[in-house]
Structures are given as structure tokens and as C-alpha cells.
Amino acid sequence: MRWLGPLWVLAGCGRFGFESEANHDANHDANPDATPCMLGPFGPTRPLLELNGAGNDAHPMLSPDRLTIWFDSSRSGSNQIWTAERPQITAPFGPPRLVTVGMTGDNGDPFVSDDGLSLWFDNAPGSQADLYVATRARTDVDFSNPQELTGFNSSADDFAPTVTSDELLLVFNSYRGSDDDLYLSTRATRADAWSAPIRIDGVRTSGVECCGSLSANGDTLVFASARTTPGYEKLYQATRDATGFSNPIAIEAAAVGSDGTDTHPNLSRDRKSIVFTSDRSGGAGGLDMYEIDRECVGN
């Protein structure tokens, strides 16, 4: 978790509007048997008015079907994780409810596994955030038994985890270096230990790189960076090859109408939506949540 100016943010070239992704199966990550399609451009940014309040509502992520959202909020006094559901992707979310993780202090930056049984998050009982994962046997019960991600946590803040669908690739943020950077770790199977984290230098600048979101298969990383204007993060996407993630390009649709920082993006598993946090003017509180989406335009 970290602060941005007077607001606290729980996590921070070219153009990229996602206008063309021919030969990419937009639905493959969420459903390997889905019909391939070419995705069109993202539409206008939409505030999640039904969830945004007078405090900080931030760090959203969507379930694979985009009907459930998890986020962190200061609405209860301290920062905690909340969730809400909607009956269809075009409908507003219903009333949010608190997510119990069994830990005191501030809990934030939620990332829930595709099956809904594991919750990756960070906990800050004091001034330092560390990474944890909590589990549950069924999706209709609370998360419990939070376990520290040993081997990841350092003497600095470690926060904002994101994993691939197979849970074999993990990206998170850390202040362990000279500034706020993204780090990566892998494992061969879910039963194996994670590798030692390495900094993702292919997207790094001397400023802030923050709050990554991995695509389901790990070939894409969406993140926030202040590379163009110090102190003001915007959203970027990088792709992964044999050498790692590199060549980030701006996601311009998310920046339209924004006079502030846009950060902590979550790319939906079908790649059709990004939910993110912004302190732009006109919001309901200090930090608010927004969504942009797009549809198939052809096969």
C-alpha cells in the first residue's frame, strides 16, 4: 500500500486503444473453447457510482464472468476488502459487503483466483504492508487461514499481488529497491515453492511502476506508470516474450477526461474490460473506481 500526495493509494511510449487484436482469441483465457474474435476499441470511462463513496474506494478486480467485483475501501473506518455482485455486466453492482480475511489492520489490494477459492491480498497492521493468501473450501463461505507469502515479503512494503489463471506466475509491487517497482515470481506447479522475485526491468523507469494485472495466460501485463508526468500515473500495457515483459504502450481510453492519477488496473479474464482507480475531478470521494469495456467486432 502507498500514499499518493494527500490521498492514500493502496498500491503509483506510443498509443494503445486496443483498436485491433486480429488473430487474438479474446475469450480464450476465460474459455478455451470460445469463438475467436477481434476486439474493438474501449468505450468511454464509466464511474462505478453505485460503489464509490465519500472516502476511498479503490483497487477493484473482476471475476472471470465480470459479475463479481472485489475492492478495498475506507468506508468502515479502516481500509478493508469488500465485494459486490451484479446480475449482468451492463447492470449496476448491488450493495457491497465486507470480506472477512481473519487479520487485523488494513487489508487491501484483493486478487481472487478464478475458482473463487483463494484471496491474494496485502495486510498492514502498522506502517508496512506484506503479502498474504487466504483460502476457503466453497464460494459461499468466508476466507480464512491467511498465510504469509514467505520469500516475497521484505523489510519494505510489498503489495498489490496478481496471478495468472493457473496460479504459476505472480506479479507484485515492492519498495525494496530505490523506488516503487514491479516484481515477478514463478513456480512449476501449485505444490512447488515460488522462485525468488525478480524486478521487471523491461517496463521500469526511474519513477513509479505500480499495481500490475496479469492476463489469464500471462502474456500481457497492464499496470500504472508515472513515466510521462512525475506524480501522475496513467495506464499502460506490456506484452511478454522469451525475454520478459517489455515495450509498454499507453492505454489512452482510460485517460480521456482525467486530470489526475489513474492507477491499479484490473484486466478482465476475457480482456473485454478494465476496472481501475482514479482521483480525477468529479468523483464521489478521494479515490474512486471506474470501468472501460469493449466488444468483439469480427471473427
CATH architecture level-2 label: 6 Propeller
The low-confidence parts are 1-35
State the separation between the terminal residues, measured CA to CA: 41 Å
Gyration radius (Cα, Å) is: 17 Å
Binned strand content: 35-45%
List keywords for this structure.
299 residues, mainly beta, Neuraminidase, five-stranded mixed beta sheet, 1 helix, 25 strands, 1% helix, 44% strand
Description of the structure:
This protein has 299 residues and is an all-beta fold. It has one domain: 6 Propeller (Neuraminidase). It contains 1 helix and 25 strands. A 5-stranded mixed sheet has the order 3-21-20-19-18. Strands 5-24-23-22 form a 4-stranded antiparallel sheet. A 4-stranded antiparallel sheet has the order 6-7-8-9, with no helix packed on it. It is globular, with a radius of gyration of 17 Å.
Question: What does this entry show, briefly?
Answer:
The protein has 299 residues and is mainly β. The chain has one helix and 25 strands. The chain has one domain (2-298): 6 Propeller (Neuraminidase), CATH 2.120.10.30.
SSE layout and pairing:
Elements: E1 2-4, E2 7-9, E3 15-16, E4 38-39, E5 46-47, E6 57-62, E7 68-73, E8 80-85, E9 97-98, E10 106-112, E11 118-124, E12 130-135, E13 144-148, E14 158-163, E15 169-174, E16 181-186, E17 198-199, E18 209-214, E19 220-229, E20 232-241, E21 244-251, H1 252-255, E22 262-267, E23 273-278, E24 288-293, E25 296-298
